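Give me structure tokens for this 417-residue protein.
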Amino acid sequence: MDAIGKEDVLRIVRDQDRWRGTECLNMIASENVMSPLATKAYVSDFMHRYAEGSPFKRFYQGARNIDELESSAIELAKQVFGATKADLRPISGGVANAAAFSGLTSHGDLLLSPGVAGGSHISHEPFGVAGVLGLRVEHAAFDEQEYNIDVDESISKIRRLKPNLVTLGGSVILFPHPVREFSSACAEVGAKLLYDGAHVLGLIAGKQFQDPFREGADIMTASTHKTFPGPQGGIILGNTEDEAWKKVKFRIFPGLVSNHHLHRIPAMLIALLEAQRFGADYARQTVKNARALGEALEELGFKVLASDKGYTKSHQILVDVRENGGGKYVAGALEEANIILNKNILAWDDVNNPDDPSGLRIGTQELTRMGMKESEMKHVAELMRRVVMDKADRVAVREEVIGFRRDFQQVHYCFGE
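Here you go.
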């Protein structure tokens, strides 16, 4: 590979801004875009600075402005998510999980998660954060027909195994998880219940999914950039006793995070203010769009999971494309047409062979953010059919996608600059 120069770097950045920013149907379920105002708040002198510690209890001087912003963001996060405690210092959802897991468990403790096949994030697994921390991992029972946790069998498992920590939520979540039912079982065996809200945080903020704390969760971890359209980073929210929360906070700092990328905080504060004002409408339309896309794809011959349950109650739908060449092939073909989504393991796939899974995972949160509604979802489905079913020329479909996107260039559900 030839050496890269400064002009090459800028050229590639401009290409990314044009391609993914203006010409693609972006349906990766873990992505979103910030508002122009949040972006403006993100790019500032704060990106150069340090503020180790907590607001007004710093180990560096010069932190008076970030103290004001961060303390305000903490209070607003508690209001938006119905929590009694909040910490915005984790710099990713994975780091948030690492801090929460290590604060609530000890080496050798047992963690029970939905499992990758059941939708949990890799950080919940032996090959992820849980394994790095020396936790033993067992999986809840999963009902492939319902495409959700098997409540009765899983509760029996909790009572029998007596885990120290139980997780719900994760990377594939079509329907609300049984937080209330698990909370009672966890109380019986002395386990903490953690809800990984990374994917559905924006739906929770908009009161359109489930309320983990009201249903009994002790801790919620999340990313701040999926259905919640804030800066890339993490958050931990709590409704647990002070002693457990102190342990989690100690794992964040000084344990896992030194400087917490201060420029995230003002952008997050703008995103929280926007969630208060626009979050319900945005979350409601995101779910409507996901269900409309699922229906349109099924009508065109795609095998969309959970059709008898309305496909989804979140921003995600899952499509079984084994008969269309498999997840790897279909996702690659769609990318050539500027339709960006990801291959994904479905419940029956071999988790040890994730390279060519059965399915696609599709998220509608970013298309919704750009102003699309149910009628646009039908057109998106038709474009997908042309590539996958009709084997149309991918370059020709790409040009159609670019033309379609020209009418959807403005971020919605946000403040003006």
